[in-house]
């Protein structure tokens, strides 16, 4: 059994674009021709490759073919580069959590963009879920909290993102003059989204089982801004809170920090381009993140 590259690439484009019509425009084909290619691929492999929903998405079998197509595109780009053709601008799909994206992740990408003809397709998700985007073939590299390698990938430790509970002095005076379990059960707190466990981890460590009033603010910079505005207390990365702590606009609530170990995972391919991405990301991550064992979480 062989997987024709043209058909695999067509499937990948449909998944990326979300519809047959959009994929047809990108491939400069008719929607009927795109549909015929998907049908031919499914007949050749004896599996359903595509869920024809809106947006269209790959099946579990289709994920494997999409991943293959993207890996072959990466290797083709490397080969063309070795032949002296750098005219094709490669799209590099990466996954990263919101806090890394807002604090340090863009710096290495900017340096890469100065040296290589690249555009970046960033997928933002919680660090506990970015590995799933590697498994599906959606991205070729990810910042993740998962230490065990995803199948077909390799993993490198980056460091620890430390979070501390902070609030404005005015908020503390009003809600937490004594940071007790009873006071914390009543004080408004800022959560990133409904999958955010960091605040809950810190509260449990302080003996708080009740659910205090919660703001949900699903953007890292805006989350930090909400805390700075006194809407509630929250756990901020030290990379975001250090300026406020230095100038007195934020204060620590005490308690143990929550440390989140982070790892870089990428496809296990010999690719000059992917290795260049990894080198920059790993170097920057190790420069800005803490070393050593996590304290909690």
From TrEMBL:
- Keywords in alphabetical order, please: Activator, DNA-binding, Transcription, Transcription regulation
Q: Please indicate if the UniProt record lists Transcription as a keyword.
A: yes
Q: A Pfam family this protein belongs to?
A: HTH_1
Which InterPro entries did the record assign?
Answer: ArgP, LTTR, LysR_HTH_N, LysR_subst-bd, WH-like_DNA-bd_sf, WH_DNA-bd_sf
Any one GO MF term held by the record is: DNA binding
Q: Which residues form the HTH lysR-type domain?
A: 3-59
NCBIfam families reported for this sequence: argP (TIGR03298), PRK03635.1 (NF002964), PRK13348.1 (NF009888)
Q: Which PANTHER family match?
A: HTH-TYPE TRANSCRIPTIONAL REGULATOR ARGP, TRANSCRIPTIONAL REGULATOR
**According to its UniProt record, which protein family does this protein belong to?**
Belongs to the LysR transcriptional regulatory family.
Q: What is this protein called?
A: LysR family transcriptional regulator ArgP
Species for this entry: Microbacterium protaetiae
